[in-house]
Amino acid sequence: MIMVFPFMVFFMFQPFLTEIVHMRGVVLEQTTHKYAKLAAREGYLSPTLINQMKADLQALNFNTTPLVVAGTTGGRVARGTDVNITVQYPVGNMFILMNWFGSDSPSGNYKFSATEMSEYIP
């Protein structure tokens, strides 16, 4: 019975963990597209938008310390120019039984990019 217990735990809880990993990716992807549209209005990805994005993700219980946000941050670009945003966040552990059947290697990062045409008119 003891040998069967780890497999029972795996089959009972692994689908929930997989769904959590998937839903975190969906939230990050939607957030990336939302802030790409907001950055297009301003003509660039401003520090205010980055801080607002981090605050929104913190409200959803994301740890924003490993969050990497990059994109068009150098200054406003004129209308018709692309505004890019890239968001990276670590996936975390994907398996409920870490290190029981070997080592659980890091699963990499979520990486989402979005491009919108700038709407800023100087």
Description of the molecule:
With 122 residues, the chain is α+β, with helices and mostly antiparallel strands. It contains two helices and three strands, in the order H-H-E-E-E. The chain has one domain (5-117). It has helices at 5-42, 47-59, and strands at 68-71, 82-90, 109-117. It has a three-stranded antiparallel β-sheet, with helices on one face. The model has no long low-confidence stretch (mean pLDDT 83).
Helix proportion of residues, in percent?
40-55%
Distance between the termini: 72 Å
Shape: elongated
**How many whole angstroms does the radius of gyration measure?**
19 Å
Biggest sheet character: 3 strands, antiparallel
Give the total of beta strands: 3
- % residues in beta strands: 15-25%
Structural class: alpha+beta
Strand order of the largest sheet: 1-2-3
Please report the number of helical segments: 2
Q: Poorly predicted ranges (pLDDT <50, ≥5 residues)? A: none
Overall residue-averaged pLDDT value: 83
Q: Give the H and E element order.
A: HHEEE
Number of domains: 1
